[in-house]
Amino acid sequence: ELTFKDDLGNIYSGEGNGGSGNDPYNIHWSATFQKLNENATKLIVTPRVHLRVHTPENHGGVEYVNGKEKKIEVPKKEAKSKDIVLDDIVIDLKK
């Protein structure tokens, strides 16, 4: 996840455009963000990583039995998680 702000204090929200890939583990995602304030001189990007440990005890899904879909209910047990905020990336904007 990325957070975008400028040196004037504006925070820019984005909207996901979806993603595509060749397999479930290599997906390329894109998003479109608001137009930058014309007086901004720096764009500050803050990367955030959300780690979750998914197991059969804390994560649902779907399995196929004899060609028929069988839903696996999501258990109530919390998944282990950790959020990491990485160093800001500062981009100088040219006029």
Automatic annotation (TrEMBL):
<feature type="region of interest" description="Disordered">
    <location>
        <begin position="1"/>
        <end position="24"/>
    </location>
</feature>
<feature type="domain" description="DUF5643">
    <location>
        <begin position="4"/>
        <end position="69"/>
    </location>
</feature>
<dbReference type="InterPro" id="IPR040680">
    <property type="entry name" value="DUF5643"/>
</dbReference>
<protein>
    <submittedName>
        <fullName>DUF4179 domain-containing protein</fullName>
    </submittedName>
</protein>
<dbReference type="Pfam" id="PF18705">
    <property type="entry name" value="DUF5643"/>
</dbReference>
